[in-house]
Amino acid sequence: MNYLYYPGCSLEGTAREYDVSTRSFMAAMDANLLELEDWVCCGASAAESTSYLLSLALPAINLAIAEKMDDKGQLMVPCSACYLNLKKVSEKTKKDPALLKKINSILAKKHLDLQGSGQVRHLLDVIVKDIGPAAIRKKIKKPLSDLRIAPYYGCQCLRPYQMFDDPEKPVSMEPIIAAVGATVYPWDMGGKCCGAAHMNTKMEVGLQLVQGILEAAKDADAIVTVCPMCQMNLEGFQNKLAAKYRDDVDLTILYLPQLLGLALGLEDKQLEIELNLAITDRFKAKIDKLHR
Amino acid sequence: MTQNQIIVSPQKGLQKNEALVDIRQMISACIQCGTCTASCPNEFAMDLTPRHLWRMVLMGQSDDIFKSKTFFLCSACYYCTLRCPRGLPLTDAMMALKQIAANRYPKEYKSSVAFYQSFIKSIRKNGRVHEVGFINHYYLLMGNPFLPLKYASLGLKLMRKGKLSLRAPKAKQGIQNLEAIFRKVESMEADL
Hints:
A: 292 residues; 10% strand; B: mainly alpha; 13 helices
């Protein structure tokens, strides 16, 4: 399995452990990732909130670079926000030749040209559809049998493009969690919104959404995420929430490839769990016990 | 010219705000069922419900629309887009409203617009966002000395983990210097 790989800006900074664990997990599953050369920011929520053309041009630059590297390539993206931005331009230009032409008149400034032959896929899509639970099960060294895991999908890998899961009641992570020997924590918050960038501009609103999610996962051992923004919102403000709601939700938040990597027996350096902001002592103790 | 534009063009609000015409067309099939409002996770914090906002767009009430903060409370979860029985691109319409506000009413929507503009500025010369640089620029634009304090505990945690790079990146050469792309986009948007 070969994929072009777009890490995105967060994975070079505050979500470095998502990049490291994604690369390690994919390598352990014999999938090759080829990082996009000279990739640029997808525009995040900033371009689409200020300039329609810029919100198309930035993803298009990356899609054009991807095509140059492999014209039928599959571009794998671990960040849900980057994924949707890239996917949107890929889908829109496939359906609208006039729009493609307009975008190419911008890309010409960088001597790039987009044809629209490539495909954009989220990391979770690749894990559930191309790799699958059976292949993961075969490589398990340390089954995570004592863990109850709440799968959190967030929004933008599920909606508006329905590629690999039910956008109302997502379930795609469940067989993967079961494959590593853990129990799926039953809840209905998996596809709910974490508030995204609200945490920066309207913190009170963001906090309220995150509180609802953490509260519902109270009895789980960990929530797993597939997006650096969801991860940051769920892991970064737990102290603040405890003070605000007088309700101490102290919960481990992991990236999905970190959880899978633990079961595959990958080294600490390959998963970088010490970089996460919310790992409870309770969780550490369970992992230590499993690994003894 | 479609019929819609002919009907609305005499209205003062829409003359002032041609871009609203495009949004009006995006949602012209709205039946005011309220599924968007019922689906919105941020509705509790909005001054107008999404359904109400769409009605105002249909009525071309641009002065009142740009007094509302509702569209900047859209977190792009796409629940309304998914569930709209008319299949309307409601999340995209929210973004289109944000774009108008960012360009025409930056002062009125300072907290959101300053955040996005700081982000965009950060990628213009470097191609990729520099998290520390962009957040500091945002705090500077907001001019509120207490704002950074809200994030102090998170900032310290990130710093201790070595996740914040304090060194500003140098301007890039080649594809990653986006100056030419930005200029082209700006000139095309000025022609609209």
